[in-house]
Design goal:
By secondary structure, this protein is of the alpha/beta class. It has seven helices and 37 strands.
Length: 420
């Protein structure tokens, strides 16, 4: 949408998180909370995204460098003041402005797209997102007149009487015409209780001015969850993880027990692969078709698993490529390793990739056989169809030639021909 600009509010301290980490950088399924919101702006095609930064804003900008235009809110005086900080960037812009909160990882692109489309079809000064919930405590209530039109948003601390029983809440997503938005912000007065300027007050202002206000209700009330506490973070993690697992199952991946399977956002898994319980798969992992992973397996960042590979119980793989039809079934660790096709990694095999200063690489050729409890002290190279005997230690810098057999501590070449 070329005529859309986005403002994301991310300046708050997040004091209830009790953390040195900026709230929007806490992760849900391996990704910063704000990343989910930025994905929405990208999906909408918003040409420019302004993120309002305040508390530890430099850390947020560093973590997500190049993904947005940072705007500093020098003093944390509330959400209306935060949006006003972007006014100089939009002074000559006459299109629509979408306002999002940086702490809403459960918000769906389809929902926001529906809101923006409704706003563009209408003559509304503002269209905002609502949800109907069982427990509205802590959220702003949507006040409607006798005709059902939204006329105000009453923040929880200011709600009284019947207002506290209203189940329809403000989710914190707004689409407004730029000129009218910044005009309304000038009329917002400081809240006497919190000593802040509330963005929600623009709804009452537009209503008093006789301007049209539209709303869109979320199909899933959980979309409106803002992460303000560690409990909220855990809830968001659970919801996103459930969605990730459901998507994989729809795509043809078998997940034996979704309740004990943890797959981060960004991972990719091929069809007819089976994921067994208590498996952890991190964000950029790639797994091919017809694989078997777990139980009790951990695939860390940088891992690439080709087709028909078996990674069994109590195993860990990190920054490693494992070739087609290879398998490591028990108690093994591969780090910074290139494993060829049809390789056997025996029980208890370890690639000792760290020498105290740097990570070193191991290369294992096609058809190699690494016996149980072998240790490969990187950097090492195991040739094609080579054998490393059970319990052997291949020392740093060693090459085991193609088709040879190495045994012992330290391992020595005892045969240069076929396997015994």
């Amino acid at each position: 949408m070329k005529d859309l600009r986005t403002i994301i509010l991310a300046a708050g301290k997040g004091t209830r998180m009790n953390s040195d980490i900026p709230k929007v950088l806490h992760t849900v399924c391996g990704r910063p909370i704000i990343q989910y919101v930025l994905d929405i702006t990208k999906g909408l095609g918003s040409l420019k995204t302004y993120v309002i930064l305040g508390h530890k804003g430099a850390a947020v900008k560093t973590a997500l460098d190049g993904m947005f235009i940072g705007v500093e809110q020098a003093r944390l005086l509330g959400t209306a003041d935060a949006v006003k900080c972007a006014e100089s960037h939009l002074r000559n812009y006459r299109g629509d402005v979408l306002i999002l909160s940086g702490d809403t990882p459960l918000l769906k692109l389809a929902t926001v797209k529906r809101l923006v489309q409704k706003h563009k079809r209408s003559d509304a000064a503002c269209t905002f997102l609502t949800a109907v919930v069982h427990n509205p405590k802590g959220y702003g209530r949507v006040i409607r007149n006798e005709s059902g039109a939204a006329v105000a948003i009453r923040e929880d601390k200011d709600a009284s009487g019947y207002e506290r029983d209203i189940a329809e809440i403000n989710v914190g997503v707004y689409c407004c015409r730029s000129k009218e938005l910044f005009g309304a912000l000038k009329a917002v007065k400081i809240n006497a209780k919190k000593k802040e300027f509330y963005l929600t007050d623009i709804i009452e202002y537009f209503s008093q001015q006789g301007r049209r206000i539209e709303t869109v209700e979320t199909e899933d009330p959980s979309e409106g969850l803002g992460v303000n506490t560690r409990e909220d973070l855990a809830t968001a993690e659970s919801v996103v993880r459930r969605d990730i697992l459901r998507d994989f199952m729809i795509q043809g991946v078998t997940i034996i027990d979704p309740g004990t399977t943890y797959i981060d956002a960004g991972a990719k898994i091929g069809s007819d692969t089976v994921i067994y319980p208590f498996t952890f798969i991190e964000g950029d992992v790639r797994i091919g078709n017809h694989c078997r992973i777990g139980p009790f397996a951990r695939l860390r960042l940088g891992t690439r698993i080709e087709d028909r590979v078996e990674i069994g119980n109590f195993t860990e793989v990190s920054r490693t490529r494992v070739g087609t039809k290879s398998f490591m079934k028990h108690f093994s660790f591969l780090g910074d390793t290139s494993v060829g096709a049809q390789v056997n990694i025996g029980a208890g095999v370890v690639t000792a990739n760290f020498d105290g200063r740097q990570k070193n690489k191991t290369k294992i050729g096609d058809g190699a056989f690494i016996g149980s409890d072998a240790v490969l002290i990187a950097p090492v190279k195991i040739g094609k169809k080579a054998v490393v005997g059970a319990g052997s230690v291949v020392t740093k810098g060693k090459t085991v030639p193609d088709g040879s057999v190495a045994v012992g501590v330290p391992a020595k070449i005892i045969s240069g021909g076929r396997r015994p």
